[in-house]
């Protein structure tokens, strides 16, 4: 029996790269999987690559009303959610309060999924691009993991260095080839990580193998974080 047998998993941005690799890993271990993102055709193509298929939901995760619709659909189709892997987005190095939706939206977004998660069975992993680690302070009000732990929800984060996916060069101001070359030169392992390597870490955090892991941030970066 797989490590996620009988679980329901949602992967945001689940159409390619780390998203798709993680959805595939979850399904391989027995989970029923839903993926969501902006491009429906990309999601449908990805679903065909996931064992047993996947529910595809077109959505913009930056919109709170879209998130409510996603969780409501999962509730109808699966009866609840056990695993949430928040993986959509990319890093922008700006002051937190400079974002117009900063605190109110992020707070609401962080707690909006709570009503849909099945009590005592859930585990949540969040992928964050490598731009600093989660605070080690575990007092309520300091981290999401502390706020939600008494509800049976574990929150952990994954902080990868650049991963070799099609994400490189996707944006107009992003020279993918130059960025790859830079990171190859400065990374002690002299290579980029793979989506599958990050997916295996996400699988560990989503499973009961990590039941004693709470509020941790995992750097998966080939040693780059030690520089």
TrEMBL record:
**GO molecular-function terms, A-Z:** oxidoreductase activity
- What Pfam families would the database entry show? adh_short, adh_short_C2
- Carries keyword Ribonucleoprotein? no
* CDD domains reported in the protein's UniProt record: SDR_c (cd05233)
**Keywords for this protein:** NADP, Oxidoreductase
Family indicated by similarity: Belongs to the short-chain dehydrogenases/reductases (SDR) family.
Its name, as the record gives it, is Short chain dehydrogenase
